[in-house]
Amino acid sequence: MAAGCLAHLNLWKKQLGRVPDSVWEHTNLETLVLADNGLTGVSERIGGLKRLRMLDLGHNKLAEVPAALGDLECLTDFLYLHDNRLKSLPKALERLTRLRYLNLSENHFESLPECVSAMSGLIELRTSNNALRSLPDSISRLSHLRELHLRNNKLETLPESVGEMQDLRQIDLRGNPVKRLPVAIDSLPRLEKLDLRWVDTLNLAPEWIVAREARGCIVYR
């Protein structure tokens, strides 16, 4: 098929080592899977894939991703960056305001990159198995977020600003050293699931749990 005509390209687990230059010539791509290829870098040329809706860079060896990802103005469906060696993200990714799903799990983040808080279209955010010690107050800008997955980090609490995230349905805090929950968590009208399994540092009054469940939120302990 001629370059520029292909819409979907799946190169999962092809032992590539590096992305062939020919990939960047398929400028009509809407989905691109480059997972599990031992990649240590991605060309800035990826920014030329202006129609890309879904990108999978998971299960590689990336210590950084190109700022050109911020040029992917049609990236709306999924961005998989899980199981890499990332500690930060380029500021340019703040332009991905239409992205609905972001997976940053199994990396080396000690703090949530500020650009993530600018991704105002996010519905689901996965940052499990990192080293997060806190979340920024700016996370409240994710006003459409429904699922926040934070399993196996180093979080002792959440910012009070989570109370502004009125669409939140699920919060997963499993395996964190949580010492207290923000008061604002009581003001989340749509919260359906609060997962606190494998958290042995938090003492919750039984009546607090009963009150939450009476409002339709299951608290897992």
Average pLDDT value?
97
CATH architecture field of the largest domain: Alpha-Beta Horseshoe
By secondary-structure content and strand pairing, the structural class works out as mainly beta
DSSP strand content: 5-15%
Q: What's the CATH H-level superfamily name of the largest domain?
A: Ribonuclease Inhibitor
Helix coverage percent of residues?
under 10%
Counted up, domains total 2
Radius of gyration: 19 Å
Compute the number of helices. Answer: 2
Report what the structure shows.
With 221 residues, this protein is mainly beta. The protein folds into 2 domains: 1-131, Leucine-rich repeat, LRR (right-handed beta-alpha superhelix), CATH 3.80.10.10; 157-221, no CATH class. Helix content is 6%, strand content 14%. It has 2 helices and 10 strands. The protein has helices at 114-117, 206-214; strands spanning 8-10, 31-33, 54-56, 78-80, 101-103, 124-126, 147-149, 170-172, 193-195, 218-220. The chain has a 10-stranded parallel β-sheet with strand order 1-2-3-4-5-6-7-8-9-10. Helix 1 links the parallel strand 5 (101-103) and strand 6. It is elongated.
Helix-strand layout with pairing:
Blueprint: E1 8-10, E2 31-33, E3 54-56, E4 78-80, E5 101-103, H1 114-117, E6 124-126, E7 147-149, E8 170-172, E9 193-195, H2 206-214, E10 218-220
Parallel strand pairs: 1-2, 2-3, 3-4, 4-5, 5-6, 6-7, 7-8, 8-9, 9-10
A few lines on this structure:
By secondary structure, this protein is mainly beta. It has helices at 114-117, 206-214, and strands at 8-10, 31-33, 54-56, 78-80, 101-103, 124-126, 147-149, 170-172, 193-195, 218-220.
